[in-house]
């Protein structure tokens, strides 16, 4: 089992956000995590990465329990995270940001190089000596994805990668996510644009009120108008 989450609870102060989330990713695939704003999607990724103190539950990666560990240990165990806020090191160059991500990775993980990153996003090669804080939002998104891939993960968690991006860049990011999966990396993708998510994902999970309310193949989701109306569409 590549990834297994069981009974995961998370809190912001006294607010109980995740209510015993359970799901599995048996093998490397792209799984889209859908839901309305406030449903708990981003919180789930942060809890899995050890970024929410007080979270409890099990997170197993390739059979190893990582739930409750510090975020740096979780990263070294093979779980990577691309935050919605991008969080580049604004006072470092593109090359320096990429260097911050380099990790040896765990046995069996795909290996990534800077040349791989530049082939995905040639714009980063052009800007490699520029401060990241001076880059556009789209360029920062590219950089954040690449920095996370250089940790050589088994699974990568990606939060709203197309938010605010031009359509051409959205297409590029979509192709990169597809290629990541073909190289044996599992992808858990939080995405607001259902059309994009359904183009790239083989499986779908829907969150509502801090729980998984639907999980199944993307093809099945296409026919579940009841799920879309209740948990995704805005009245």
Number of alpha- plus pi-helical segments: 10
Name of the CATH architecture: 3-Layer(aba) Sandwich
As for the CATH topology, it is: Rossmann fold
Level-1 CATH class name:
Alpha Beta
Regarding quaternary structure, how should these chains be classified? single chain
Low-pLDDT segments, ≥5 res:
none
The count of strands amounts to: 10
* CATH superfamily descriptor: P-loop containing nucleotide triphosphate hydrolases
The count of domains is 1
Helix-strand pattern, N to C?
EEEHEEHEHHHHEHEHEEHH
List strands and helices in order, with pairings.
Elements: E1 3-12, E2 15-25, E3 30-34, H1 41-48, E4 56-61, E5 64-65, H2 71-77, E6 79-82, H3 94-101, H4 114-120, H5 122-126, H6 137-149, E7 155-159, H7 167-182, E8 186-190, H8 194-200, E9 203-208, E10 211-217, H9 218-222, H10 225-232
Parallel strand pairs: 3-8, 3-9, 6-7, 7-8
Antiparallel strand pairs: 1-2, 1-4, 4-5, 9-10
Nutshell version of this structure?
The protein is of the alpha/beta class and 235 residues long.
Structure report:
The chain has helices at residues 41-48, 71-77, 94-101, 114-120, 122-126, 137-149, 167-182, 194-200, 218-222, 225-232, and strands at residues 3-12, 15-25, 30-34, 56-61, 64-65, 79-82, 155-159, 186-190, 203-208, 211-217. The protein is of the alpha/beta class and 235 residues long. It has a single domain (3-40, 48-232), classed as P-loop containing nucleotide triphosphate hydrolases (Rossmann fold). A six-stranded mixed sheet has the order 6-7-8-3-9-10, sandwiched between helices. The chain has a four-stranded antiparallel sheet with strand order 2-1-4-5, with helices on one face. Strand 9 (203-208) and strand 10 (211-217) form a beta hairpin. Helix 3 runs parallel beside helix 6 (137-149). The longest helix has 16 residues, at 167-182. 42% of the residues are buried.
């Amino acid at each position: 089992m590549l990834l297994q989450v069981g009974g995961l609870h998370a809190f912001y102060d006294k607010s109980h956000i995740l209510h015993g989330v359970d799901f599995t990713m048996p093998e490397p695939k792209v799984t889209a995590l859908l839901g309305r704003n406030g449903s708990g999607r981003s919180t789930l990724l942060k809890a899995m990465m050890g970024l929410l103190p007080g979270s409890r539950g099990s997170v197993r990666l390739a059979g190893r329990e990582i739930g409750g560990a510090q975020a740096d240990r979780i990263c070294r165990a093979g779980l990577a995270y691309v935050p919605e806020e991008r969080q580049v090191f604004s006072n470092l160059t593109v090359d320096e940001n990429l260097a911050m991500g380099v990790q040896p990775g765990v046995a069996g993980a795909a290996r990534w190089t800077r040349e791989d990153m530049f082939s995905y996003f040639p714009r980063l090669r052009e800007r490699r000596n520029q401060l990241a804080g001076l880059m556009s939002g789209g360029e920062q998104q590219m950089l954040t994805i690449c920095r996370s891939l250089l940790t050589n993960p088994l699974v990568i968690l990606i939060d709203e990668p197309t938010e605010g991006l031009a359509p051409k860049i959205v297409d590029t990011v979509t192709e990169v996510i597809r290629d990541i999966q073909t190289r044996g990396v599992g992808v858990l993708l939080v995405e607001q644009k259902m059309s994009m998510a359904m183009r790239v994902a083989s499986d779908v999970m829907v969150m509502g009120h801090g729980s998984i309310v639907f999980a199944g193949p993307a093809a099945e989701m296409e026919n579940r108008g009841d799920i879309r109306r209740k948990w995704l569409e805005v009245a």
